[in-house]
Amino acid sequence: MANLTNVILLEIKRSLREKWFFLYFLLFCGLMAGFLWSGITESQVLGFSGLSRTLITYIEITIIILPLFILISTVRSMVMEKETLVLEYMLSLPISSSAYYWGKSIGRFIIIVIPVLFAIAGSAVWAFAKGYHISWTMIFSYSLMVVSLSICFLGLSYFISSISRKQDTAVLTAFFAWFLFVMFLDVALLGLFLKFHININIVLAVTLANPIELFRIAAYSLFDPKLAVIGPIAWTVMAKLGRSGLLILSFLYPAFLGIFISYIGYILFKENDFL
After folding, report:
1. Which residue numbers in the chain have pLDDT < 50?
2. In 192-210, which positions are buried (b, 16+ CB within 10 angstroms) versus exposed (e)?
3. Which residues have C-beta within 8 Å of that of residue 54, sequence separation ≥ 6?
4. Number of Cβ within a 10 Å radius of residue 88
């Protein structure tokens, strides 16, 4: 346990010194600050105003940028240490492979979620100071979905790191995985359904299996229970699962998927001969 804690702290300290963390922090917190400063809370689109209007816009950014940033910034971490022999040095110390792998994973998770949750908390504080109505249930649910999505793509990142030997290969694999998830969003699925007459249950299964699409539908359902701003596949998912079922699935499934994939990555990592 002491070694695990030391690796977690080492990963946090190392990440705080790297340029990507400051860019990541400024990106998410700066975007939220920009939305609040621009007066977007005063506008009204499709019935959304106040903090809801800001978070709706923030969701659009989170859906695309967060998974990509997690993958690209994290997938190089362990591969780079393989190439520079830092991994060989670390494992020559009295540190087990499990303490190293899970310590890095937990430390990177803490670093990943802090800027996004800080931006969400900051928006809630700002809205409270301005006297806007705040749904704390909505804030908590959205934050929980962000945490779950982060676990999912962090697990995928470490799985890719475990099977990659070169940084270029790892980054290319991570980008392709992100592109695949984004490609099968609502519009693309609807197009395939109409063109090839795919069974609707298969389309729904692919929709729910995609953590980005699940996050998108569940996040919008917090603001619009009828999902009027998305599309027919989202309406069908809502009809099948209900709002509560959709939210529970969005909390549990991405996190479970990320932990499962990360564990597979750990098994592959442990079987490799680094020394």
Report:
1. 43-49, 275
2. ebeeeeeeeeebbebbbeb
3. 32, 35, 36, 40, 41, 123, 127
4. 12
The pLDDT assigned to 196 comes to 64
Q: Residue 162 belongs to what domain range? A: 2-271
Angstrom distance (rounded) from CA 221 to CA 157:
28
Q: Residue 45 in 3-state DSSP? A: strand
Question: Rounded to an integer, what distance in angstroms lies between the CA atom of residue 268 and that of residue 257?
Answer: 17
Q: How far apart are the first and last CA of the chain?
A: 23
Question: How many domains would you assign to the chain?
Answer: 1
Q: What tokens were used for 93?
A: 């110390």
* HSE-up of residue 72 (Cα within 13 Å, Cβ side): 14
pTM: 0.84
* Nearest residue to 133 (alpha-carbon basis) of 62, 41, 32, 56: 41
For residue range 185-196, what is the model confidence (pLDDT) as tens digits? 665 555 566 566
